[in-house]
Write a structure and sequence with these properties.
The protein has 358 residues and is α/β, with parallel strands linked by helices. It is 40% helix and 17% strand. The two termini are 12 Å apart.
Length: 358
Amino acid sequence: MVTRTVDLRSDTVTKPTEAMRAAMANAEVDDDVLGYDPTASRLETEMAKIMGKEAALFVPSGTMGNLISVLVHCDIRGSEVILGHNSHIHIYENGGISTLGGVHPRTVPNNKDGTMDINLIEAAIRDPRGGLVYPTTRLICLENSQANCGGRCLSVEYTDRVGELAKKHGLKLHIDGARIFNAAVALGVPVHRLVQAADSVSVCLSKGLGAPVGSVIVGSKSFIAKARILRKTLGGGMRQVGILCAAALVALQENVGKLEDDHKKAKTLAEGLNQIKGLRVDVAAVETNIIYLDMLDDSKFTAENLSKSLEQHGVLVMLEGPFSIRIVLHHQISASDVQYTLSCFQQALTGVQDENGN
């Protein structure tokens, strides 16, 4: 019988804290579709200020936030967006920019560090003289931190260079900042500086920040005015949404300061896993709260049967492939949980339990 659960599937699995639940219960609310919910307005004002943009808009999910942002910038069907081949928008968002917006994705390879080569981005921009046959490039999208590359962080210098390239060609720059606060903390850079070059940013509230629901998109006042209309079109307008925004305000106040500790625990876990026979982790690539680990040929384990073995001890992980597992740390994982997880991996792979096991 499992007596302990260590949920490492994602940072989206966190439960609302008591402070969040109290804030939600006591939230001052009104009809946000009509623009009168005071708690939603507080969150949007605060987020716009933190991100260094003119305005902000609460949306139900990161997928909707990215979709709205792309559709605002690419408001003519047949527009093209340049984005990483390994990006969340391209892989995990149901192809919404194409199916709902008629926007064509043009992918550029993501490097291991999450970047795309600047020269390859520029080469992907369509020549306007070919407008008779080509889609029209209107947008470049970056992702920071880059989840599929292991939570790698895009630097200020790199982001600025992409922003300069976009301006040179009359394009817009959108940043999928689902974990932008993780990136800012890891880089030691104020988050507003990290996104300064962007015309729009989506920020997930329910990943590293640990709120139960939602994302916020930020940009200019004119961008957010158009985004508000698209939110309604897509069914994302909600009434007394201040109940959700109240929890997000608590997350901003209490959990940003915990991200550095999440990153330290991820590094500790990565180092420990890499020392277990049969596993390989690129420890140097663990910059934030995400770890990818591979099973070596001599481990005699697949990701699936290792995952099932861990689950018997209450340790939950995410399968990434036949021999690959993803682990994500969050503020509800303790140092003790890290040591317990290492013990469970050790026992599953070698049958030997160390002194930290139960």
